[in-house]
What does this fold into?
Amino acid sequence: MRKIYVVLLVFIIYGSAAFAQSEGASEAFNRGTSAANDGQFQLAKMYYESALESLKQAGLNSSAQAAKIEYNLGVCNFRLGESGEAVKHFKLAVRLRDGKYQKAFYALGMAQTELGNWKAARESYISAINLKKDDPEAWFDLALIFCCEKNYDKAAEVFRAAIKYGASDLAASHNNLGVILAFGGAIDSAEAEFQVAVSQADEKFPVARQNLQILRAFRQKHQPELLAKLEINKKRKHQ
It folds into this structure.
């Protein structure tokens, strides 16, 4: 799954203008984002919390600007391994935007996934997709949740959507679809997916090649236990 990041420079500029009614919030927000982009997430949290306090004093704590800060706080918590706290901030961000915050829904899905809350993660990814149907990463991560829930038919359907919309790691999408097809007995289709995955993969992604070799061994030996060795890839090669 892809990583999530704080709002980058273009949004810092937008944020400064949006916080014109609260100079303190604007300065703290920019300092927080600079710290976060340098990997200093604990320091960034301090600045973002200060920005929220400034917005509260200005009577803007229910604003879209507050939602952006809550989102960034959630990202910091997530990157610090504090997924439970991240969930709280992402939920607040969504609520402050009246349920129209696609990026926060996606991040919420990631945090819930880290906590092993499959149902909550699934619902969050679906909400993200409802707001942006062509988000391939949300489709990919939703498919992984269906795999965790052992709903492989649905996972196959969703991996196809990830491929359709151009997931950043198409090799993993084709590989995972191939595994599911093999489990379902569609050996020819599975082999075709593995071949596509191998053609798109690099040396850092040996899983597809291994799966292709296992499948071809199964064709020769007809040993069902070989299929149990097929591997679904749950990490992106650039993560």
